[in-house]
Amino acid sequence: MIAEDYRHIDAPALRRLEALAPLDQTARQALQAAIARSRKIAPRRELMIEGREVKETLLVVRGWAARIRILGDGRRQIMNFTLPGDLVGLCGQENPVSSATIIAMTPVAVCTAPDIAAAPALAQAYAVSRAREEAYLLAQIARLGRLNAHERIADLFLELLERLEFAGLASHGRFVLPLTQEVLADALGLTAVHVNRMLQQARRAGELSWQSKELVIHDPAALARQVGRAPVRVTAAG
Amino acid sequence: MIAEDYRHIDAPALRRLEALAPLDQTARQALQAAIARSRKIAPRRELMIEGREVKETLLVVRGWAARIRILGDGRRQIMNFTLPGDLVGLCGQENPVSSATIIAMTPVAVCTAPDIAAAPALAQAYAVSRAREEAYLLAQIARLGRLNAHERIADLFLELLERLEFAGLASHGRFVLPLTQEVLADALGLTAVHVNRMLQQARRAGELSWQSKELVIHDPAALARQVGRAPVRVTAAG
DNA sequence: CGCCAGCTTGAATCTACTCAAATCTTGTGG
DNA sequence: CCACAAGATTTGAGTAGATTCAAGCTGGCG
């Protein structure tokens, strides 16, 4: 029993969904069973392709993916990152077609998300998950539209921290950030060169350190205050 | 009967929802009844406030609104525009809290969106509406992140054309654009001065004209090709 | 231990911003 | 119906933040 409890808490995807809404035993078991049947996807492989029909809703179990769009001349924009516990292709609509391509940025594990019919307690978790995803899209728009390079970087890092904390993959301003500066640039609407310069400036200013894929934000609260960031909220409860 | 048929087609909100998914008589009547009970909102008034609980889903019947976020130092970002036939506050979640403020940009009429329980045919229309809204958020991200000023303006105008056509409020590249250049700038992540300069350049290039709130895109298909824009699609069917 | 992707640095350039002032529109009250 | 005020658009000049191009460096991996 204790061992089993430990398993839930330890599984990032399960942990995130539990944090979004209370789950009953049925829901937990459905999730664990689904996660047990998860499959691997190699970096640069698509989880979903723009314009292609969406056959099932996926739950990301491990790894990072990104929703991207590539322009005719090769410019690339990353719309958002998909982290463990995130749902992909949730829409509640008939014949849905994906409006963007999602590719794995690291080795990724995904499974088919359990159907709500099988575990009604999941409905609220899925709904909150989707609402949060939308809220993060809005945050991305504000970032690209109105923040300068330094603020964009700080704001994105704080968002990733917030999101990874839900899955138990971050704490005390520290988490694994398995991206290159170029990928970061594509998410921030900047060039890799400029991201590099701004990162170094932030390091020199003592705001953060980032080596061998581990990012540390030295004082998340202070940085959030500095760039005017507030945590995302989508329910009155949490 | 003919008179009544004409009424549906003519009402922009109804027309948009009909275009998104087939509606039965029950759904149409529920919508018409709701629209008949619509209320007016003056320009600059909020339809929804960030952080405030969302009490009901609204259907925009007339006028333009905008989802905005204002930063501490007064910078403002418009995340998207809300047009007739759009739904506001749709989320299917308990205790939802609005993740952005929505304000009327013109005199607006809204009504309570009919409940799906009362007219099940609405479910698909609502789901498609929400999926389209999300797709337009992605488009806004790509616009802000990777397009230059000229492309942003053209792309947004083409998007508005596409959306207004669903409601029967635009055709042949022509529609009423009841915004100031400053509002446009806040949507495009630019300054009003720069928007002004780019608009004049576009006018001189013969791409468009815009006087007394009427915008004309002279050759929408050509402009779309030029800036690399494809129409938004979210269902396999339409 | 050598290679390659990713990171770092510099210099020149450019797009978009800022500030400031003039002109044009629109709506309103007399 | 005109005059005025307030808001919106236009124009100019100078500046700043980010890009581009190019070259050198570093570290992780086969």
Shape of chain A: globular
Radius of gyration of chain A: 18 Å
User: In the CATH hierarchy, what is the superfamily of chain A?
Assistant: Jelly Rolls
- Name the poorly predicted regions of chain A: 1-9
Q: What would CATH call the architecture of chain A?
A: Sandwich
Strand/helix succession of chain A: HHHEEEEEEEEHHEEHHEEH
Biggest beta sheet summary of chain A: 4 strands, antiparallel
| Structural class by secondary-structure content of chain A | alpha+beta
What's the structural domain tally of chain A? 1
Q: Classify the oligomer.
A: homodimer
Helical segment count of chain A:
8
CATH class of chain A: Mainly Beta
Spatial separation of the terminal alpha carbons of chain A: 28 Å
At CATH level 3, the topology of chain A is: Jelly Rolls
Helix content of chain A: 40-55%
The total of beta strands of chain A comes to: 12
Please, what is the average pLDDT of chain A? 95
Strand content of chain A: 15-25%
Strand order of the largest sheet of chain A: 1-8-3-6
Q: List the chains of the largest interface with their residue counts.
A: A-B, 46 and 45 residues
Protein name (chains A, B): Crp/Fnr family transcriptional regulator
Domain HTH crp-type (chains A, B): 147-221
InterPro entries (chains A, B): cNMP-bd_dom, cNMP-bd_dom_sf, HTH_CRP, RmlC-like_jellyroll, WH-like_DNA-bd_sf, WH_DNA-bd_sf
Pfam families (chains A, B): cNMP_binding (PF00027), HTH_Crp_2 (PF13545)
Description:
The structure is a homodimer of 238-residue chains. The first copy, chain A, is α+β, with helices and mostly antiparallel strands and 238 residues long. The first copy, chain A, has one domain (2-227): Jelly Rolls (Sandwich). Helix content of chain A is 43%, strand content 20%. Chain A contains eight helices and twelve strands. Chain A has helices at 2-10, 12-20, 25-36, 122-146, 149-166, 181-188, 192-204, 220-227, and strands at residues 39-41, 46-48, 58-62, 65-70, 76-82, 87-88, 101-104, 108-112, 170-171, 174-176, 208-211, 214-217. Chain A has a four-stranded antiparallel β-sheet with strand order 1-8-3-6. The two termini of chain A are 28 Å apart. Chains A and B meet through strand 5 and helix 4 of A and strand 5 and helix 4 of B. Chain B binds a DNA duplex (30 and 30 nucleotides) through residues 148-149, 180-182, 190-194, 196-197, 199-200, 212.
